Amino acid sequence: MAMAACVKVILGSVAFAIFWVLAVFPAVPCLPIGRTAGSLLGATLMVIFQVMTVDQAYESIDLPILVLLFGTMVVSGYLERADAFKYLGKLLTWKSKGAKDLIFRICLVSAVSSALFTNDTSCMVLTEFVLKIARENNLPPEPFLLALASSANIGSTATPIGNPQNLVIATQSGVSFWEFATGILPATILGVFFNALLLIFIYGDLLSVKKDQEDPTAGFVNGECVNSHQFSPATMGGVGSAHHETLRHRVNSEPENHWFLNGAYWDHRDQPCSRRWKMQLWKSCVYLVVVGMLVSLLMGLNMSGTAITAALALMILDFKDAVPCLEKVSYSLLLFFCGMFVTVQGFNRTGIPSTLWELMEPYAKIDEISGLAILALVILILSNLVSNVPTVLLLGARMAASSALISPAFEKKAWLILAWVSTVAGNLSLLGSAANLIVCEQACRVPDMGYTLTFWKHLKFGVPSTLLVTAIGLMLLKS
Hints:
The protein is mostly helical.
């Protein structure tokens, strides 16, 4: 696309810059309105500045992605009520053989649950389990929290429903669920494995140190838990803070040995056999619906249609007013996506992204090692600067078109490389991924077990992990 008129370029750049600042620093002092409002502001400015018309703004909103996001959030909520994550938590300690074994288990459970239920949801519900495991085994929590967050990001690459950027890629590329999963799964498996090995290598000495040998004030200031950051980054899964807060309250407040049924908690030890039988039947139905959804996706059925059908089936099986369930959906995340679609499309209309890509394209050929390295570096940097979903929206179609000129077979490979690098890039720093921040904030707030994972502690592991895992994945995806 040729560069638009000078005024349109300037105004479009200003609107995108406002969106970027509020997305990266949602509590910026001069305008602390948050990511969602910042996204809608950027979209509105694109129309006010006449970079695009109102009709063009509406057309830029990708409805299938929003429907898919909505459906997966509803399904995840029902899975949580059916104790799916509690069962995963129990697997972490079943016949454990020590600290290193626990590291591998946490990496595996985190990766698998993230591939099926999204990385943010997995981190939200598993953080407290991980802290309890560290405490029960008298071990320091730092390597276990890093294992949870980093493996959640890596594991989420395996499926189109693992994270928001994968949803965008699967929808825009036309790559089926089966093609996506089989194409990237080998890289995911090796990535999780080497990530666990790196954790054990870096924290081998720490894993042999008992928790009570650590500095008891680590992670605390004047007895209070302190977060190590002021602003959160713009990773799309983290925009639904209300959704995350609801999940955190439900996980931390749910009584032990209780089931959630018909809007209330019931102690299954005191209930008659008929009620326990009904609850077990309901849980089984939930799991069957989810398995059916996954099978349908693997068969290549429409992803957004499959997700919304599964969500509606679960609402019907619940056999009560669905409003409480729908209230748990992160509508702020959906609105953020609407604003982001408009803002990014408006920025594309200025011609700046196309011009920059034309300058970089000759040096970023995915059939050459040097070109692949340059392309991966650009994606890593952009994903940490403007977040992964805008990076995918800005680069996806251009990468695919450029790769298709080399060979039609390279087009799908380009989409998978983008999915891999943009997601693994979230492990670079604490501020690179919403999953990282969820683990940090959740761990800090757990009663009597609070621990602060600082920015520098994360960076010490995040940089080598990101570089190693990215390189391993690229070698597999390129072949």
